[in-house]
Amino acid sequence: MNNTKKLCAMEDCDRPSRALGYCVKHYSRLYKHGRLHLKVKERVEKKCLKCGKIFEVIPCRGSEAKYCSRQCYWEYRRKYPQIKQPPKCIDCGKDLHPQSRAGVKRCRPCHVLKGSTIFREPDHDDAFGHWLSGFTDGEGNFHCSEGASGRYVSFAFRIILREDDKGILEKIRDNLGVGNLVFRDVVKGMPNWNPKYQSKVRRNQWCYIVYSAYDLSKVIVPHFDKYPLRAKKAKQYEIWKERLQNSRTYLEFKERGDL
Fold it and tell me: 205 pLDDT exceeds 70?
């Protein structure tokens, strides 16, 4: 009985054959790639920055490969440590926070200024000023909320009216020269909404909102300082104003001289 094992049919391979006359290695290559001989990629020569050895890499890594091994990489880094420069704001050139998210290009004050909605200086008489303060006593609100991270606090001044009163909000926006109008679909936005009770639900609304800290400090606060509120909302405004002027963004604006 002949106990000799068949060898792989591949040249210069002394492994025993397993399937189709090939060993496990060459049969797997044939099954995966459909050929026995793999294509040899072109190589480019590079010189190691640490030891000066010439090594080869594939062309796509030709511009970034600088070391022949990980050992040379760490030895070179220990000898010449790289000082990472903090990213800078593209508007003012100030160093950004080291923990800023990837893709952040502006510091907080410049980001707020970029999103400012001021399109002209306030243009109204004393009659409108006193009317707006009285109207805010009844329909307006001063909003303040803290983000999930706790680093920043968002502020907003809002007046919310029914859909058929949109003209009043447009008049306020045009006279103050700041802010946006946002449509609120109250019916579809309510939880567990049932069409059977649609007649009992409030109508859709329009919201006049000013949420930029710069806009609030530049327009809204001076207005209500000149035309003070009279009802109980005056106390809420004082608390809101104090927190706004103690916020990090407001203090940065004061330091830069923007306010």
Answer: yes
The domain ranges of the chain are 44-79, 84-114, 118-256
Angle between helices 126-139 and 233-245 (to 10 degrees): 100
Pick the CATH number of 118-256 from 3.40.190.10, 3.40.640.10, 3.40.50.720, 3.10.28.10: 3.10.28.10
Cβ–Cβ < 8 Å for 139, 161: yes
**Best CA proximity match to 66, nearest among 52, 85, 78, 79:** 52
**Amino acid identity for residue 204 in this structure:** N
SS3 string of the chain? CCCCCCECCCCCCCCECCECCECHHHHHHHHHHCCCCCCCCCCEEEECCCCCCEEEECHHHCCCCCCCCHHHHHHHHHHCCCCCCCCECCCCCCECCCCCCCCCCCCHHHHHHHCCCCCCCCCCCHHHHHHHHHHHHHHEEEEEEECCCCCCEEEEEEEEEEHHHHHHHHHHHHHHCCCEEEEECHHHHCCCCCHHHHHHCCCCEEEEEECCHHHHHHHHHHHHHHCCCCCCHHHHHHHHHHHHHCCHHHHHHHHHCCC
Share of the chain above pLDDT 90, in %: 17
Please tell me the distance from the alpha carbon of residue 131 to that of residue 251, in angstroms, as a whole number: 31
pTM of the model: 0.57
Separation CA 138–CA 132 (nearest Å): 10
Q: How many CB atoms neighbour CB 179 within 10 A?
A: 27
Average pLDDT of the chain is 81
